[in-house]
Amino acid sequence: MRKPGLRTHGWIFGSRAPTKLEPMTATPDAAAARARLLELIKELAVVRGKVILSSGAEADYYIDLRRITLHHEASRLVGQVMLSLLDDAGIDFECAGGLTMGADPVGTAVMHTAADAGRPVDAFVVRKAQKSYGMGRQVEGPSVEGRKVLVLEDTSTTGGSALTAVEGVRRAGGNVVAVAVIVDRDTGAKEKIEAEAGVPYLFAFGKDELGLN
Q1: Which of 2, 85, 184, 210 has a CB 3.0–4.6 Å from the CB of 203, allowing a cystine?
Q2: Domain encompassing residue 145
Q3: In 3D, which of 169, 137, 171 has the Cα closest to residue 150?
Q4: Is-contact 165 180, C-beta < 8 A?
Q5: Residue 123's domain is classified under what CATH number?
């Protein structure tokens, strides 16, 4: 039976050889963290009313996840929930991050949660464009070259930000193994990312769980 909260949407993850990473799932703490994070997202992040999204699309609600990823309690829960989600899916990665700035606190939350469990995961930041000065880098932080990389985002509407991050990481020599977001808006990001990036797309919460159907 699929564990609560695991959203793979058509991607089937079979058996795999044991790795050095021990799953954090199937514990009361993981379930409690997920339940509390959902509660906080509903309370703090869901804003109702007509808004224009970064994609240019109009919506009658807005999910402001920076109110979550930068919140003193919720940020720790983000790391716990996202790492548990990825462990459930069998995603093995060494670096986590995405396009600045929505992905930045998500990547650091995952990094710190992994560190608390004795797991060496580095975070990184992808600029929207490569620098024209200094070292001329687009991906900032410890090198991703030759490493298994998880691309993160807080939420995605069209998938554009995540795909920009995937492209930047691949140019820097990283091996992108998956894209994961906290909340999926069910607006086509999953289909676009899986088709164009060719990697699994996972999310912790769907808009149905937020009462946004």
Answers
A1: 184
A2: 28-210
A3: 169
A4: no
A5: 3.40.50.2020
Would you say residue 3 lies in a domain? Answer: no
Query: In sequence order, what DSSP letters do the residues of 38-76 get, joined into one string?
Result: HHHIIIIIEEEEEEE-TTS-EEEEEE-THHHHTSTTHHH
Average pLDDT over residues 117-124: 97
What pTM, to 2 d.p., does this model score? 0.83
In a domain, 9, yes or no: no
What's the pLDDT tens digit per position in 65-95?
A: 999 999 999 999 999 999 999 999 999 999 9
In a domain, residue 89? The reply is yes
Here the tokens at position 33 are 């963290």
CA atoms in the 13 A half-sphere facing the CB of 154: 22
CA of 83: how far to CAs of 88, 90, 126, 154, in Å?
A: 9, 11, 20, 14
Q: What is the pLDDT of residue 25?
A: 42
**Domains: count for the chain:** 1
- pLDDT for 82: 98
The secondary element (H helix, E strand) that includes residue 29 is helix 28-40
Q: Would 145 be classed as within a structural domain?
A: yes
Q: What are phi and psi of 114, to 5 degrees?
A: -60, -40
> Which residues make beta-bridge pairs with 96?
123, 150
Give the angle subtended at the CA of 19 by the CAs of 206 and 204, to the nearest 5°. Answer: 5
Residue type, 197: A
Candidates 111, 105, 173, 106; CA nearest to 139 is 173
Q: What distance in Å separates the CA atoms of residue 44 and residue 154, rounded to the nearest whole number?
A: 14
In the predicted model, what is the mean pLDDT of residues 156-174?
96
